[in-house]
Design goal:
Number of domains: 1
Strand order of the largest sheet: 1-2
Number of strands: 2
Distance between the termini: 56 Å
Shape: globular
Structural class: mainly alpha
Number of helices: 23
Oligomer: single chain
Strand content: under 5%
Largest sheet: 2 strands, antiparallel
Radius of gyration: 24 Å
Length: 493
């Protein structure tokens, strides 16, 4: 008898397109007046809903919806592809592997310090570029070191999986979660970055304390391990009696690549924070005017936007240029660079396609006049809800939705066109809605059995899923309470 298998994200999303199209024949069509109909951030004006002519969507509209959706989301899709190329080029150099491997080697014998240090490094990877699949390569390196130090395989899994996973939960500029969601919410990635940074810092502290307490308990008394004695002994034989993974050397070129990698994300953060119009900080405008006003040099440079005014086009250029710089510093040949970059972009083509299919749902809703009606129902419901209640209900709403749509990019594309305007009605800024979405998705991805990353990590570490779930579920509850508390405080300030 075949096991029940969860359909792919594409099938789930296309099924939703079909269901939504059927509802356009039933749900009354409507429309809102908007604060600025030409703005990227469409803000419906409360109380302006009116009925519109019914426009049910047929078979042609259903099939055409993903195509129109991909066209509508072309800037975000291209951004994702270029990010894929950038990450592939950086990973090809071995710089990240060498950096983390160098830390493991230097801290060998001081594993108690290694635990927080590595969790912070993986957390930085999670919060910047959504480090997930990339962590798989580090388990064979870290597990033997952790077991040899007197801990167990559960400790090793926790260091990597929770370190990176909490980083994703507290994404500051993660392009696949925060970036995509911000694009469809019509706001800058930089909005809400302080709140997300606080969630990241406190979340990592909670995670580090959690892992270190367990590790200390296991080292003092191995019987306290969640893994059985036979499994612990078997893991020692398996991981310690074979050759350990060779540590990639941290050469000068790889150090240069790491510097470019870090500076790229720093420039990205500076580029997306609205310094001028929100904080009245004009330093980047003045610097931009100074550079472009220099005779000859200004003409050669052209007319770049100042930091703080960047959108997806400018960020895409940044990562493209950074990819080229990495290839130059590492002395990667032109053919090797192009092959690696294209392969990296190809690896994320699925993500770009999911964004298009997800956007197709919004296309059907908009063309069928359903979007305004759903917002109107939400507006009526939210009239009796406070902003704090709305924020926390949004977080709780995204937890089951994250199981249904495991793709973070797909979930953002699917939900933000509705949830972001609902936040406007509830008096909740759109960046808080994004924080609720990414945090809930991050919590679910730490434990969901549909995650290839978690299940792959457990398979490598030879840790049963039931034991892992028993280990982390209380931590997930604590992290959820922390996130909801921070969002509630942010709303009230």
């Amino acid at each position: 008898m075949n096991k029940l298998k969860m359909p792919s994200a594409y099938t789930i999303l296309f099924t939703i397109i079909v269901i939504v199209a059927i509802f356009t024949w039933i749900v009354p069509a409507g429309q809102y007046d908007y604060v600025d109909p030409n703005a990227s951030k469409l803000e419906p004006i409360p109380g302006t809903y009116s009925s519109a002519e019914q426009n049910p969507q047929g078979l042609w509209e259903i099939v055409n919806a993903p195509i129109k959706g991909f066209y509508d989301a072309r800037d975000i899709a291209l951004f994702v592809l270029v990010i894929g190329g950038f990450i592939a080029v950086v990973m090809k150099t071995g710089a990240i592997d060498a950096g983390i491997g160098n830390v493991v080697r230097k801290l060998k014998g001081r594993e108690q310090i290694m635990i927080p240090f590595l969790m912070i490094l993986f957390g930085l990877g999670g919060t910047t570029y959504g480090m997930a699949e990339e962590t798989i390569a580090f388990y064979p390196l870290i597990i033997p070191v952790i077991i040899a130090a007197g801990y167990d395989a559960m400790t090793a899994v926790s260091v990597v999986a929770l370190g990176a996973g909490i980083g994703v939960l507290g994404s500051t500029v993660n392009p696949f979660a925060t970036g995509v969601a911000s694009g469809f919410a019509g706001i800058s990635i930089g909005q809400g970055i302080i709140l997300r940074a606080l969630i990241l810092i406190v979340g990592e502290i909670i995670g580090i304390i959690f892992v270190m307490r367990y590790a200390k308990k296991v080292k003092a008394d191995p019987s306290k391990s969640l893994l059985s004695k036979s499994l612990r002994d078997d893991n020692k034989d398996h991981f310690l009696k074979k050759d350990q993974e060779e540590v990639v050397e941290l050469t000068g070129r790889r150090k240069g690549v790491l510097w470019i990698f870090g500076l790229t994300f720093i420039i990205m953060v500076l580029g997306v924070i609205p310094w001028a119009w929100k904080f009245d900080i004009l330093i980047f405008e003045k610097f931009n005017n100074f550079i472009t006003s220099i005779p000859v040099i200004g003409s050669i440079i052209g007319n770049p936007l100042p930091l703080g005014d960047w959108w997806f086009g400018e960020i895409t250029v940044l990562f493209l240029v950074a990819s080229i710089l990495v290839s130059i510093v590492y002395k990667m040949g032109e053919e090797d660079f192009m092959k690696t970059f294209v392969n990296g972009a190809r690896d994320l083509l699925g993500v770009a396609l999911i964004i298009g299919v997800s956007r197709g749902i919004t296309v059907v809703m908009n063309d069928g006049g359903m979007t305004a009606t759903v917002l109107h129902w939400g507006e009526d419901t939210l009239a009796n809800l406070g902003s704090v209640a709305f924020t926390n209900l949004t977080y709780l709403f995204y937890i089951p939705l994250s199981f249904l749509v495991p793709s973070t990019s797909g979930l953002a594309t699917l939900s933000m066109p509705i949830m972001a305007p609902l936040g406007d009605f509830a008096g909740v800024s759109r960046d808080i809605v994004i924080t609720a979405y990414q945090s809930a998705s991050g919590v679910v991805n730490l434990v969901t059995p549909t995650s290839g990353v978690i299940m792959g990590a457990l398979a490598i570490a030879r840790v049963p899923y039931t034991k892992y779930f028993k280990h982390v579920w209380k931590l997930l509850v604590v992290l959820s309470i922390m996130v909801m508390a921070f969002m509630s405080i942010a709303i009230m300030m």
